[in-house]
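Re: the request from the purification team.
They wanted to know what the chain is likely to look like in 3D before they choose a buffer screen. I agreed to run a prediction and write the result into the notebook, where they can find it.
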Amino acid sequence: MSLGEALVTLRRARAMTQVSLADVAGVTQAALSRYENGLRDPTPPIVEALASALGVTPDFLLSAGRTQGAFMMDAHMRRRRTAKPTVWRRLEARLNVYRMHLDLLLQEVEVEPELALPRLDPLEFAPEDAARLVRMQWRMPAGPVRDLTGWLESAGCVVVAEDFGLMTGGGRVDGLSQWATNAPVVLVNSRAPTDRLRLTLAHELGHVCLHSDELGNDPEDEANAFAAEFLMPAEVIRPELRNLSLGKLHGLKRYWGVSMQALIERAYHLGTIATRQRTGFYKALSARGWRTKEPLSDELAPERPRLVDRLGQALLERGLSSDEVAAIAGAAGGRDYPDFLPRPLLTAV
């Protein structure tokens, strides 16, 4: 672990090049390159200038450099095949920086999860069995999952919603997750419709439960299978997926809170529709323009993260100012807070 790795991660998270960061910090690109590659240590005034340019405190930058283990940790990510590497690498960097800020907050505010979050070996548990086990341990109702974000946060998962569409091609990445020191962090695309967002949350929960220690044979397929069973338990939904029609899919979407396409795939994998019927449904969706924008998504109850706001509120209730809360999290004071730190956390209530 080095200060250079922290500089690279923070710079990438803010979509800054070496040239732009060097210009804002008042150093040469050659000098910045040496700092990032560990060939030279910056002096305290330069550390302060770099931290200011990156929107963090000097202590945050230096403590990141002292942290044991890699600053940039790989993240599990739900993305489309066409997502550009530059986009998902930036999102991975942002998740890493979130993780560091949240680790600092969680050192000040103790979070006691109401639910246990199992960490299962994917070589021993099939993803469907893992999903059923989690639902059973959490004593969830047999039917649809209401307020999925609330369930995750009750188990100690920190959920952060951010508009990925602000980045070029950001709409092609739905979410990503990573274990922090004290809790898993899930970063999701707030621009996604609620039905897709819910599938992403369940997908990332699958990663958190199954892939925290072992990756398994195919992590993405395993997370998809976990999400399908978690949101649409086979024993409950199978009878409802018989004799499907577009009209019936509308009603099922309202009830289960998942997309019509997810319902079609679930019906196909559970054997209640054949390949020909599956193809027919997709043709019907395409003819109506519903493959890219389904109806009814705005009628579903939105998923709203609340835990991060509660962490900030707990510190504000101790009598700290919003700037003091920001300093604890390692964010620069004043109004130039980093984009990747949730703004509601840093504003007085």
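For the purification team: The first helix runs from residue 3 to 13.
Please add any questions underneath this entry.
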